[in-house]
Amino acid sequence: MKWRSILELIFPRQCAVCGAFDQDLCEACAAKLEPSGFSCLFCGTENLDGRTCFFCKNMYALDGFTSSVSYHDPHTQTIMSAFKYRNHRGLTAPIAALMVRDGGPLGTGCMLLPLPLAAKRFRERGYNQAELLARELSKISSIPLCDSSPLEKIRHTPQQAKAKSREARFTQIENAFALRVESSSFIANKRVILVDDVTTSGATLNEAARVLKEGGARSVWGWVFAHG
């Protein structure tokens, strides 16, 4: 018997929301999650595909984003807490399945790139939830994953959720990312899709997009599970 099977006998899988056994996220709970819809990430104007609107595109680097569920939904917050802070990595597959089901940024020349964590945060958590999602999304969507990430987070920043204002989120993430010069050719003239678990103000996605575009990316979109 495999070690995983033995561990599941001792610590059976349970739905992160309702506690039902044998599933990390049961179908009933997944079906109840509040959808997020499509809108400009920065001003909230509703649209058909999540594209950054005409007025905002002159101020922000991110070309658009798509998300599956609303972060205002308490069940979504429960899922994110388990996935991000309680080592519930089994949620990777059901979260990615919902992201693909609800559609993502598609097109030719696309490449998935998980948002990197600062070294300090990675040591604290032991894993990067964005990387787990990006690998699963690549597997089930057939969009290539950039294994040798040209993007790195060079400065530890406070958790965005703890920022007191939208302006503070943009300020504290400024200049937190940089390109690795030796691998920047991977993004030249590519359509990069940044993967993360959740976005609120869009500050982190936008700052990463700015750095990637300065490095030669043709366009940069965000693909996240939750928005709110």
Describe this structure in words.
Helices cover 33% and strands 15% of the residues. By secondary structure, it is of the alpha/beta class. α4 crosses α6. The mean pLDDT is 90. α8 links the parallel β6 and β7. It is globular and about 45 Å long. The protein is built from 8 helices and 7 strands. Strands 1, 2, 3, 6 and 7 form a 5-stranded parallel beta sheet that branches.
Write the layout of secondary structure elements.
Blueprint: H1 3-10, H2 27-32, E1 64-66, E2 69-70, H3 74-85, H4 92-101, E3 110-114, H5 119-125, H6 129-141, E4 151-153, H7 166-173, E5 177-179, E6 191-199, H8 203-214, E7 219-227
Parallel strand pairs: 1-7, 2-7, 3-6, 6-7
Antiparallel strand pairs: 4-5
Question: How many strands?
Answer: 7
Q: Note the run of SSEs as H and E.
A: HHEEHHEHHEHEEHE
Q: Strand share of the residues?
A: 5-15%
Query: Are there runs of 5+ residues with pLDDT below 50, and where?
Result: none
Query: Biggest sheet, open or closed, and with what strands and sense?
Result: 5 strands, parallel
CA(first)-CA(last) distance: 43 Å
List the total number of helices. Answer: 8
Mean pLDDT: 90
Structural class: alpha/beta
Assembly category: single chain
Helix content: 25-40%
Q: How would you describe the shape?
A: globular
Q: Cα-atom Rg, whole angstroms?
A: 17 Å
Summarize the structure.
The protein is α/β, with parallel strands linked by helices and about 230 residues long. About 35% of the residues lie in helices and about 15% in strands. The model has no long low-confidence stretch (mean pLDDT about 90).
